[in-house]
Design a protein that fits this description.
single chain; two-stranded antiparallel sheet; 4 strands; binds iron/sulfur cluster
């Protein structure tokens, strides 16, 4: 991914962190701890995200998509 790409989590597709294995696969696998638990919803802290795309691959529901930064 290039620097003009960011990940977006679709809250309509994610069933919530408590319903996800291992306390949220996106949270557990993010190398920079850029995803936090916000009232059982994963929230990306963009200042910590390095656009590696790992969370996109790890989400079992395909709720995380790569999108261009606006
Ligand atoms: S793209 Fe990488 S750094 Fe950014 S939230 Fe996902 S796993 Fe973390
Ligand atoms: S990995 Fe996907 S389903 Fe699991 S908490 Fe993250 S966004 Fe939701």
């Amino acid at each position: 991914m290039g620097e003009n790409v960011a990940v977006t989590i679709d809250e309509n597709i994610c069933n919530g962190i408590s319903a996800c294995p291992e306390g949220g696969l996106c949270i557990e696998n993010c190398p920079t701890k850029a995803i936090e638990n916000n009232d059982d919803r994963p929230k990306v802290k963009y200042f910590s995200c390095v656009d590696c795309g790992i969370c996109v691959d790890k989400c079992p529901n395909n709720a995380i998509i790569a999108a261009r930064r606006s």
